[in-house]
From TrEMBL:
<keyword id="KW-0067">ATP-binding</keyword>
<feature type="domain" description="UvrB interaction">
    <location>
        <begin position="1"/>
        <end position="47"/>
    </location>
</feature>
<dbReference type="InterPro" id="IPR041471">
    <property type="entry name" value="UvrB_inter"/>
</dbReference>
<dbReference type="GO" id="GO:0005524">
    <property type="term" value="F:ATP binding"/>
</dbReference>
<dbReference type="InterPro" id="IPR027417">
    <property type="entry name" value="P-loop_NTPase"/>
</dbReference>
<dbReference type="InterPro" id="IPR004807">
    <property type="entry name" value="UvrB"/>
</dbReference>
<dbReference type="GO" id="GO:0003677">
    <property type="term" value="F:DNA binding"/>
</dbReference>
<dbReference type="GO" id="GO:0016887">
    <property type="term" value="F:ATP hydrolysis activity"/>
</dbReference>
<protein>
    <submittedName>
        <fullName>Transcription-repair coupling factor</fullName>
    </submittedName>
</protein>
<dbReference type="GO" id="GO:0009380">
    <property type="term" value="C:excinuclease repair complex"/>
</dbReference>
<dbReference type="GO" id="GO:0006289">
    <property type="term" value="P:nucleotide-excision repair"/>
</dbReference>
<keyword id="KW-0547">Nucleotide-binding</keyword>
<dbReference type="Pfam" id="PF17757">
    <property type="entry name" value="UvrB_inter"/>
</dbReference>
Length: 122
């Protein structure tokens, strides 16, 4: 299986090739000819940042007119909080949850959350 990622803050997309459940190769590739540019050991895909860097566009630039879908927003919020606390330099390129919510307030938003159901026992 192949997964291509087009990060907004990268000049080239990244191709991840899987062998079963394991990553077999990870590399930058050319969109024009689909050929490998450079093999890489790792890559961090940042979830979003809000104009706190030199980038012209952020991931949120693409959802201004669309719908933003959250899968388990509570877990996302906790993971973001932990990420920002791990290293103070993360705040340079990433915003906190409340800043994200203010930024996307005008967009359509859908949240999927697991809710435990009680059995009514028939």
């Amino acid at each position: 299986d192949i997964l291509d990622i087009y990060p907004v803050n990268s000049e080239h997309p990244i191709r991840i090739e899987f062998f079963g459940d394991e990553i077999d190769t990870l590399r930058f590739f050319s969109v024009e000819n689909q050929r490998s540019i450079e093999q890489i050991d790792s890559y961090t895909v940042t979830p979003f940042f809000l104009g706190k860097s030199d980038a012209d566009y952020t991931l949120l630039s693409y959802v201004k007119e669309g719908t933003l879908i959250y899968d388990e927003p509570g877990r996302i919020q906790e993971a973001l909080k932990k990420f920002l606390k791990e290293d103070p330099t993360h705040r340079k390129n990433h915003c906190d949850w409340s800043e994200l919510q203010r930024t996307v307030a005008a967009t359509n938003q859908v949240a999927f959350t697991f809710m435990q159901q009680r059995s009514i026992g028939l």
